[in-house]
User: What shape does this take?
Amino acid sequence: MRQLLFIARKEIKVALREKLVVSLGIVTLLLLGVALYAGYVSYQQQKEIITETQAEKRKEWLNQGDKHPHIAAHYGTFIFKPKTVLSLFDFGLDAYTGTSVYLEAHYQHGFMFRPAQDHTSMIRFGELSAALVLQVLAPLLIIFLAFGAFTRERESGTLKLLMSQGISFRLLTWGKIVAYSIMLAIVLLPIVVGIFILSFSGIRQEVIPDIAFRAVLLVLIYGVYLFLFISFSVWISLRSATGRNALLTLLTGWMFFAVLMPKTVTNFSESLYSLPSMREFKARIQEDKVNGLDGKTPRSVRRARLEKEYLEKYQVDSVEQLPFNFEGVSMQAGEEHGNKVYDHHLHKLREIFHQQNRLRSIASLFNPFLAVQHLSMALSGTDMYTFIHFEKAVEHYRRELVRKMNGDMAENSRYGEFYGYKAQRDLWQEIDDFAYQTPTAAELLQLYHLEILSLLMWTALVFVLLNYSNRKMKPLHG
Amino acid sequence: MDRTTKTLIHYEWKSFIRNRFQLLMLAAAFAFGIYAIYYGQSEINMQRQTIEAVTALEKKEFFEYKTSFQEELSTLEAEQTHDIASRPAYAWFRHGYHAILPPHDYASLAIGQRDLFRYYYRLTGMSLHYQLFENELANPVNLMTGNFDLSFILIYLFPLLIIAFCYSLFSAERENGTLALLQIQSVTIRKIILVRLAFYFTVVTGLALLISSIGLLTSGNPLAEQNRLPAVAWITGVLAYCIFWFALMFLIVSFRKNSSFNAIVAAGCWLVFLIVVPALLNVLVTTKFPLSSTTLAGLMRRTSLENENDEEEAREVIMEFLEHKPKLAGSDSLLNNDLLSKAYAAFTSLKDLNSKEEVDSYTAQVIRRNEWSSRFYWLSPAVNMQNLHAQMVKTDLRTFLRFHEALANFHGDITDFYFSRLFWNKPILREDYSHLPVFEMPEAQDRWGAIWTAIGKIMLMAVFVYLTGYIKMK
Assistant: This one.
């Protein structure tokens, strides 16, 4: 153990003498600071705007005056996607999922306004977030730090000296890994502390229920990820004849994993499972709304069926004799039919999204970068599943709102008198304000088992490789 | 070409073809390039198919209206169709016109923002803003990851290729012990390096030009009028970008450091230009010019008259609208028939008028923030180049902003067409169908000035970097 620490200490000393590496470390740290600060500012800005506008829309809903409930259901309201506090760490999909949605009767509107639409094509290079620094830049720093771990000893002839002193490869390898880990930990300490302060301090986060747990997991996952890079870099260095070779191999690997492969896989998934256009999607829904999902029960048939059912149930001859307004019942039935059709098509659409994203998940087994990217977004609440969960919550809210409006109309108005009845503020108040909570991290992670498996597999692999090479390595090779 | 140069090239060629790894890299770059072209074309073709489908729908719709003038109206349905075709009170909110931004032939080479914005809209005379904000379906994960198009290959991968070929041009000689041999030759080291650099420049840039030519030839006819300039600009851009990276490598090599140092510095430069600068600029733009679309969202709300049975309210709305459009006033029977339809038309138009300012100021903000960031594009030739590609093939933000402007004008034409008939109580005639409103998007003024200037800037930077290296190397 003492020997191990001794090796680590020597390694740190050498690294600190390399001006290039030290300055890169400082740059990384600075970028991390800027990323976190900018993330925080933008989080605050968006949060303020969203809270304010949401309150305003709530007020509009409550003060819409006396009107017929169905008109109120069309007047509708708006929901704005809340920013999670962890999104200041990983922006995830926030620039590409819409931010606001209009809720009204009969129609499911999609989310409007993707923030990336307010940027030039430069946005496609990505935004600087702490996650980007950790996922892309930190590995590069590690490569620069560690590519010469063994090759330097080999090239300067000190490897043989070390061996002759009875130091094993195993000891040397782990000494170096420990050294780099310590250095990286020091560079990253501020952010870890920052995240913990943020998560455990009083900041009340209504959107994410288990923020502290997520913070711990984030630190753990990035820890594993960076450890993987350190170990692989040391291993490659161990196996390479010259520093130049080690560096080139590592850089090529980094390039392939972090830049090339994610794009290739994603675009491939797009060609493999293609999406319908919005026009097609809507046309299909419209057709099924008119003709029924089976294509054989048009609206008139459905209405007649409903009428007959109610006349029989209440033993009356005409809808006017019903003790409530049949229009309200009919409208709600139409609404429910529309929902059924919409759900059917939306499900198919989400299935395509799911298939596309699943290909990335499978690819993550071969690419720890993808695994960490997915897990990081998930834990920050900026991933696809959280977004879909949010979409579902919004749609549920819309349906409840419309149902209440139609129910009130059936109960309180008379058949054929559309403008006669007006509901008042107390009905509007019956609709609770929209409140959203993300799924818990535990629930989310179940959807990401491939990614977790990937990290475990890679960790196991790196241990096996190191172990194997440490045993097989002969100092005279160098 | 003197003899020493020839000898140098000859031996460089020998070592080049013996290096399997280098050849493999070139082959891989070529393969990726071809795939990128294929991918871009398939994406854009899908958009073309959608455009065809919506155009066919529109044709069908209007064909039905037109034929309803000749047919005998035997069924209830035929009568309804004819009503929609001939009575402006129905037609103004039922007739749908498609405003389409067809892709440029070379959009497939640089998809730019085309996957993010809508490129077709169906517009009726109803509130413009109600029809404007819906998004095209897209997987956010894929949007975030971005497109694997030729532009990506050239901007991301080729610099890496250049780095891989050049980082050890000098240092490898020293590390292999051949430097001393070179130094005793009559040629200067600088010349040797420059000839070798020129050799790899020819190889790598040649490959980039080859892939680009394949892309340009298979995506459209480069000689067609609308393609000529983009094709020339694309090729020039590729040249400028490659020249810049080679010049940079020359500068790095000129410091005569060891291979690892060169590789680290070169990779660092790549990182700065392709990740750090754009990512930093993006996040700065977002925080410095915060934009909130929440105000626009409100314009989506479907509102209508307080009480559709209240004729007094209907009249008031119509009169308020006519103050803005005095040309529509003056008919004797203005308030006698189709009152509700007129009131609704007036109502939705007023809504657009009232929200115009909000929408315009939002667009102005978008332009302002991006003007600010474009001032820093020179910091990274990669950002500059990517933006240029999008501009050349019209997949840039500006094109979409102009499209939106044209949409608003088109919507104005549509409402003029129907409202002039609605408020003057004139039916739509068979003849009117031969001069329906048509969508037009005016060409951008002086697009090319900016493009050539930006390419010039990359060249200038390359020259500057090269000269620094030249002096340094001695």
